[in-house]
């Protein structure tokens, strides 16, 4: 098993360098999203000193941290799965001893670890040169609290994306579902707006869905908006969601393989 995993690692590193332009393109898009939010909040705070309990410094810290977390948790292997199924490439993987879902999970995670490494360096450069007045008071306690949430969030998003990719077993054009997934995450994770700025009924939706637990909540902990909080309930919440989506992934995969044709659907 270790040799197989190491083979995936070497292959993914080679693919990353071969398609490094793609990584920089996606990082550029994410940085542009951060820039838009930066100018938006700068304009808002030009007329206000505090917005819903946030100072301007806290808000910019929040936007920067959520942008960095996004680099790791928002994976998108569904496009690769969709292409493998529709183009008949899945047949090659089915003949290999390595499980295709495991291969996609591992390769997707490795790709985004490498992407996050580059993205983190870009954001640190932005913070150092363009946001020199931001001061972070990070502690080991807060870091230890948020790391499990982010890791679980990455696992959940990976499983969710792969499961959506299986829609290609029945539909040749499933990209609309991928966009809906991204929109749902952007709206309910706190990536665009902190939870306290949302209506109370929408905050209830955010509490039920798992996305806030691994994007908005870690950002609020790291910016000290939330202090002395136990993350165990959120870890339990995420673990339940992971168990549900993992079970659904297995079910959809088994049903989909039965209908699969080597030339596509």
From TrEMBL:
Protein name: ABC transporter permease
InterPro entries: ABC-2_transporter-like (IPR010390)
Source organism of the structure: Candidatus Abawacabacteria bacterium RBG_16_42_10
Membrane spanning residue stretches: 21-41, 61-81, 102-131, 143-169, 176-194, 200-219, 231-252
Pfam families the UniProt entry points to: ABC2_membrane_6
Keyword Manganese assigned: no
Keywords from the UniProt entry: Membrane, Transmembrane, Transmembrane helix
